[in-house]
Specification:
Elements: E1 9-12, E2 35-41, E3 44-48, H1 51-65
Antiparallel strand pairs: 1-2, 2-3
Bound molecules: zinc ion.
Zinc ion (ZN) binds next to loops.
Amino acid sequence: MTTKGHEGSWVTIDVGYVDPQRRSCALCGRPLARRIWRENVEGHMREFCEPAHVALYRDYWLPLYGAGAATASSEPRLPT
Ligand SMILES: [Zn+2]
């Protein structure tokens, strides 16, 4: 299993940088501000509004929907 604990990091988005992608928390869908928490979850780099949502994402979202579930930042994933 994946290790518990925080393996991600805060990323501060340059205010002068216009992001063509709408960033939103992978868990709650809240639009992300300048500072986002990025963490690799099951091989996918996800973006969250706070580290606590990574734990919720792992505990609730993944068992229900799996890592391939559609999110704002979903990537193609081959079925296994
Ligand atoms: Zn969130």
